[in-house]
């Protein structure tokens, strides 16, 4: 049971109440003070002091000073008036309990309001800080954009200056070429004039010469004409022969039919690889071979990865749809996955390719050969 403190002293004015509460060994660390408008409580184990105040006070501006084994309260009144007593008289236990509960509720509401106000202030501070940061970032971005624009303008000016220099250099080269051409033309004209002059002098000299001299001059002029005009090029044809594809196999061991079939399959596979199939984009060259894909599907079937094996067989069939074993192996995968209709369809295609006939789903079915409730195990080829 706590000890109720009753030896206290108090004084008052019209606006304030001064309460002195002696507590031996009291300190701030171990003292709990609770104050509202109509209730004051001090808990310092084992001491307890309660006061149900005569009139309301301003608990926010009221003060408490702890030290020298005494707590001194300065309580400011809400209304300027003199109190008859410090505590209300004639208060029973129920009324005391109601005052305590009301005071606790008021304190809780005030604490909640203070927390909300603190949170609101914090949010406002965050908004303000965010707006300041956004402004700073905007200024930095604008500064960077201005620097980029200035650099762009500078680079464009340098590029234009370089282009102008290049243009002037090209014009200078063009002028030099034209001057060289003009000089060459002048030289050619001078040479032609000299040639005409020589021919004219020779013609005049030939008139004075004998017929023998004329014949010799005519032969000389014909030689000059032949030397000045080049002869036309001779027409001919170039024949190209390609060596045939030959297998390095001895004649006694040669299997021409199988080799021709292999060449035919390889050509079809190359034509299929040249088509735009999205699945072939990420594959290597050796992985685009139907035989390689068939072996890959067989390995996946052995590890019971039937869906991956079906994908490998599908791609191999897209590359070469004339390999019966691909349909047979895919039918075995469908049987493992209980896709019986697809297994029947692939088996039908396999038998059609083996017999060398064209069959449709309505013409040739193997449904009467494979019961639906029977597991068929087919050894992979």
From TrEMBL:
<dbReference type="GO" id="GO:0036159">
    <property type="term" value="P:inner dynein arm assembly"/>
</dbReference>
<keyword id="KW-0963">Cytoplasm</keyword>
<dbReference type="GO" id="GO:0005576">
    <property type="term" value="C:extracellular region"/>
</dbReference>
<keyword id="KW-0966">Cell projection</keyword>
<dbReference type="GO" id="GO:0007507">
    <property type="term" value="P:heart development"/>
</dbReference>
<dbReference type="GO" id="GO:0043005">
    <property type="term" value="C:neuron projection"/>
</dbReference>
<dbReference type="InterPro" id="IPR007052">
    <property type="entry name" value="CS_dom"/>
</dbReference>
<feature type="domain" description="CS">
    <location>
        <begin position="3"/>
        <end position="87"/>
    </location>
</feature>
<dbReference type="GO" id="GO:0005634">
    <property type="term" value="C:nucleus"/>
</dbReference>
<keyword id="KW-0539">Nucleus</keyword>
<dbReference type="GO" id="GO:0007368">
    <property type="term" value="P:determination of left/right symmetry"/>
</dbReference>
<dbReference type="Pfam" id="PF04969">
    <property type="entry name" value="CS"/>
</dbReference>
<dbReference type="GO" id="GO:0003351">
    <property type="term" value="P:epithelial cilium movement involved in extracellular fluid movement"/>
</dbReference>
<dbReference type="InterPro" id="IPR008978">
    <property type="entry name" value="HSP20-like_chaperone"/>
</dbReference>
<keyword id="KW-0524">Neurogenesis</keyword>
<dbReference type="InterPro" id="IPR011990">
    <property type="entry name" value="TPR-like_helical_dom_sf"/>
</dbReference>
<dbReference type="GO" id="GO:0120293">
    <property type="term" value="C:dynein axonemal particle"/>
</dbReference>
<feature type="region of interest" description="Disordered">
    <location>
        <begin position="193"/>
        <end position="219"/>
    </location>
</feature>
<keyword id="KW-0802">TPR repeat</keyword>
<dbReference type="InterPro" id="IPR052004">
    <property type="entry name" value="Dynein_assembly_factor_4"/>
</dbReference>
<keyword id="KW-0175">Coiled coil</keyword>
<protein>
    <recommendedName>
        <fullName>Dynein axonemal assembly factor 4</fullName>
    </recommendedName>
</protein>
<dbReference type="InterPro" id="IPR037894">
    <property type="entry name" value="CS_DYX1C1"/>
</dbReference>
<keyword id="KW-0677">Repeat</keyword>
<dbReference type="GO" id="GO:0030331">
    <property type="term" value="F:nuclear estrogen receptor binding"/>
</dbReference>
<feature type="coiled-coil region">
    <location>
        <begin position="104"/>
        <end position="188"/>
    </location>
</feature>
<dbReference type="GO" id="GO:0007399">
    <property type="term" value="P:nervous system development"/>
</dbReference>
<dbReference type="GO" id="GO:0036158">
    <property type="term" value="P:outer dynein arm assembly"/>
</dbReference>
